[in-house]
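BUG-430 | component: ligand-complex export | severity: low

The export step for zinc ion jobs runs without errors, but we want the raw record kept on the ticket for reference. Input record follows.
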Amino acid sequence: MSVDPTRMCELLVGLPDVNVLAVTDTEQLVRVMVETRQPRPVCTGCGGPVTAKDRADVEHADLPSFGRRAVLVWRKRRWGCPSRCGAASFTEIAPAIAGPRQRLTDRAGRWATIQVGRRGRPVSDVAGELGASWDAVMDAVVAYGQVLVDDPARFADVEALGLDETLQCKIGCWRRQVWSTQIVDVGRGQLLDVVEGRNATGPAEWLDDQSEQWRANIAWGALDLSGPYRKVFDTMLPDAVQVADPFHVHNIAQQRLDECRRRVQNDTLGHRGRKDDPLYRCRRLLSRADDRLDESGRTKLLGLLAAGDPKGEVKTMWHVKEVVRSIYEHRDQDLALGFVDRLGHDLQDTDLPIEANQLGRTLLRWKHQICAWHASGVSNGPTEAVNNLVKRVKRVAFGIVNHRNYRIRAVLYAGKPNWDLLNTINPAQS
Ligand SMILES: [Zn+2]
């Protein structure tokens, strides 16, 4: 049996319609030089035959081969029109080898998109594995991922829509914070999209882009206790019942407690918390729920408060926080509403710390959203699932300055794209 070595080589390279011109290798790297076997194209201007002008060797990072990094060198033809019809010369195109302007081969680009998008791996890891630059890998993820992200069938009707602010990154020497808003299907735990900023504009425009029918199906709007998102729901989804996530309600009570602790610390000792100050030492115990404190933790906390909190203000705020937590022990919405209303007014008492007064006003301003949780289908399960998902996305994507890149990575990772599409699509032209 005779074996044609050239044919064997082409089989190993595994690309359709290419001639393998040369293979060179070192211990770490295999370089394969190919040219296409495709028929000569016609002139885009006059339709006549074109002539070869010159060739350019273009390098593409490929999938590792037999344990070594691989580089595909594509000897690209440039074509020109001999009849001087005015058409510019052009370079040959072969998407099966590599998409236009891509620095990874087509198959390496699809693989990189799965690694970064579906598995949430850092771009730098994937780039290292391929021996490609960070930009080359990110360009591929954008080119292949964009179509999956923008697939109109990616998400269906949504019953409970959530808005959640996310710190995307800090840039420059002033650590300027860049925020974005995650738009989430709370019921399915799916990231629908990511828009720039944490004001009302981005989410409102996004909702405006959806169909009226789609908006009409949204029965619940889940939000934190912030004005901008409330405005989005008020104006764009006036019929959706607004629900405050218990997580955010607990957070607000905890924040007021922390503020009170820092204020009393400063009033009594005249400086910010240091490691031996009693109020500084109890800050972690204060952030724990009462039922998660054991007897010794409780004793320690009360001791530290007795030492550092002469007027008992921090202790009061600690109790207030626990009372806010108990809002969710009420199962009946009307009883909960009565409870929150009374609590909000009681907290206005001028004998209480000013942080309690503030918290009382917040509770009154949001009492309907807080108590709507009791009647909503937005129960604990999905909310927690979404919070976990959102946290995972933040971990994966934090530090990405470029919004387009952030959006594509976050949605590929948490937006449930149809990965079956990846094999059928051509990369988007950027
Ligand atoms: Zn021509």
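Assignee comment: Attached the raw record above. The chain has a mean pLDDT of 89.
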